Amino acid sequence: MERFLAVLLVLIATLAIIHIGQAQSPSQQGFISLDCGLPGNEPSPYTDAGTELQFYSDATYIQSGKTGTVASNLESMLMKPYATVRFFPEGRRNCYNLPVEKGRKHLVRAWFFYGNYDGRDVKPKFALYLGPNPWATIDLEEQVNGTRVEILHIPTSNSLQICLVKTGETTPMISALEIRPMGNNSYITNSGSLSLYFRVYLTKSEKYIRKPDDQYYLYSHFAEIQDLRDDETREFNMVWNDEVMSTEPVIPDKLEITTMLSVSPRTCARGQCKFQLIRTNRSTLPPLLNALEVFTVIQFPQSETNETEVAAMRNIESTYGLSRINWQGDPCFPQQLRWDALDCSNTDIFTPPRITS
């Protein structure tokens, strides 16, 4: 089976690997940063000391679930947004409804840290959905130190539903949720959304991928932090499996981040993928790399249910004071999670389903 495994080995062909940190506070316009499970008696929003981001209670964006706090011996070790959780002992699907800008690219990031919040020491495994489509499997038995998932996605409506779906005996939970609006000219793919496979800030020089059939988009970030003398030059080529990736060598700008991307997806069909930075003959200095991001393409083929009909159902729910635990997420899909008492019609996955009764 080993010959079927593709291995991406990131080789930094350099004597100097340099990490640059930026201390400035980012603009937070349009950001949604949710502390899931933040107690009602604590201020919302608050500014997280570690990130200088404003975090809000998630209670405005979800109508179900209960709140908890990680074990006391762990609480002091965590940043504040990750010390509380919202967990979902009732219902199979529980969903956040978040305001977004239709047609604009957004970064969506979800954090999960179990922290023995319930004192049972039973780490959960469950599914994460984006609207009617599966996004990721969260398995905290394997990720004992917690995990996060991250995706770059263009919503097809002004509301984004992020759903935790129970798939076994354990209880889904979440620690924090973040939404960031992005420029549509950043992180471009031929189709689909980009799911973060790994991001490395070069504390290590190797990273492996073992999925032979996937396609990968690479984003390499460079910045010069040294004052070069007149007789010094730093330039290099990016090489993927012995193929030069750009027509011109990379020459990092002083204290300015330059991002180089693979416009078309890369594959590991030959069994081993190798990414190298190789300095040119005229370069007197070795290559440098600040950070490397690798994304896989994920497709969300199932269309969301007709927006007008979903809005009508929400009005009925509000007018008559209905409260059904399974009336969350997309009303029609996936079929096994369809809302109670609804019938839907659907011609194909690309056409929005209709509510018929």
In short:
This is Malectin-like domain-containing protein. This protein has 357 residues and is mostly beta strands.
Account of the 3D structure:
It is a single-pass membrane protein. Keywords: Membrane, Signal, Transmembrane, Transmembrane helix. It is found in: Membrane. One of its GO terms (cellular component) is membrane. By secondary structure, the protein is mainly β. It folds into three domains: 2-19 and 201-298, Jelly Rolls (Sandwich); 32-181, Jelly Rolls; 307-355, no CATH class. 5% of the residues lie in helices and 34% in strands. Strands 2, 3, 4, 8, 11, 14, 15, 16, 19, 20 and 22 form an eleven-stranded mixed sheet that branches. The chain starts with 6 loop residues before the first strand and ends with a strand. Mean pLDDT is 83; it is low at 1-26 and 202-210.
Features:
357 residues; mainly beta; Jelly Rolls; 3 domains; 11-stranded mixed sheet; 4-stranded mixed sheet; 2 helices; 24 strands; 5% helix; 34% strand; globular; disordered N terminus
Show the helix and strand layout.
Elements: E1 7-11, E2 32-35, E3 46-47, E4 54-57, E5 66-69, H1 72-75, E6 84-87, E7 93-99, E8 106-112, E9 125-130, E10 133-139, E11 147-153, E12 159-166, E13 173-174, E14 176-181, E15 193-200, E16 215-222, E17 236-240, E18 243-244, E19 258-261, E20 266-267, E21 272-279, E22 291-298, H2 307-319, E23 344-345, E24 354-355
Parallel strand pairs: 1-21, 2-4
Antiparallel strand pairs: 2-14, 3-4, 5-6, 6-13, 7-12, 8-11, 8-14, 9-10, 9-12, 11-15, 15-22, 16-19, 16-20, 16-22, 17-18, 17-21, 23-24
